[in-house]
TrEMBL record:
Region described as Disordered: spans on this chain: 293-331
Source species, domain of life: Bacteria
Domain HTH tetR-type per the UniProt entry, residue ranges: 30-90
Pfam families per the UniProt record, alphabetical: TetR_C_1, TetR_N
PROSITE patterns registered for this protein in UniProt: HTH_TETR_2
Keyword RNA-binding part of the UniProt annotation: no
Gene3D superfamilies assigned: Homeodomain-like, Tetracycline Repressor, domain 2
Taxonomic source organism: Oerskovia enterophila
Name this polypeptide is given: HTH tetR-type domain-containing protein
PANTHER family in the cross-refs: HTH-TYPE TRANSCRIPTIONAL REGULATOR RUTR, TRANSCRIPTIONAL REGULATORY PROTEIN
Known DNA-binding region: 53-72
The keyword Signal belongs to this UniProt entry's keyword annotation: no
Keywords annotated in UniProt: DNA-binding, Transcription, Transcription regulation
Amino acid sequence: MTDTTDPGLPHAIALAWGVAENPQRGPRRELSIERIVEQAIEIADAEGLGALSMSKLAAALGYTTMSLYRYVTSKDDLLLLMQEQAIDVDLPSGAQPELTAVLEGRIPAGDEPTWRRGLREFALASLAVYEAHPWFLDVAVQGVPLTPNNLRFVDLGLRAMHGTSLSDADKLAMIMLVTSYAQSAARIQRELRGARQDPAGRDVSGAAYAEVFSELVTPERFPYLHPVVASGAYLSEDDGVDDVVFGLERVLDGIGVYVERTPAERAESPLPPHEEREAAELYARDARVKEASKARREAEKAVREAEKRLKEARKRERDAAKAAAERAARD
């Protein structure tokens, strides 16, 4: 931390840039912003964000809680600084060894557009951060990135698209798209890992329920899902596809279509009007839609009950036929 004066930025952002005022008074000089953030990350990595508190952090450091507040004014400030430290990574061309290990095997070889490889590396580096620090996904977004490491990461994304004819707004939108995909994929992967580590040993693939599931997913109720379930693909434990990378490649395919258009073609293919989005939101809230959904659920319940009664009747018929056959055999 420098001795410069806070330039009017929010305190945590000023700390990240090293332009915040030093605390006037504090504990022994061994305590520092860097040490506080490192210890906080260590706790969050091991136990999750919910386990992190200022009092627990202070105890781990061997100081009082009030001592920490001389350096970080709130837990929100601390979380921002933790994210800032966690995202201090490079893309594979200059990656840290541990990041290179995480990305190994995920980046295909061969000739392809520079922007595509760059955005892929950007996405996989983001995934590596989320995999190394799962708590990162639990920190609420507070606004546009304004801290140096976050901005450097944005800069790496922009570098990937530097040779394209995309506008500045398009480039930022692509970074948002790729980042959103990486966050969503990482969140699902984290939750699946958590489910697999459940002491109860839950079957997260659903393969153990394949037989009964195939009976529940009928062609009448699920006309398009039924054949997928019947083929075994839906509950397959290992189909040989890395779903995260597969999804990322399809995102990049879509970006590729847009990149290949000329600026004039992009201008001639506007987004759907805002009115369509508003109409969709109104549709979801419409009382008539809710009533129709309720009627559908009731109809489905009636069908399930009828199917149950039919199944029970067939069972009674089979039992009666079996009993009759046994009597005939005895006679």
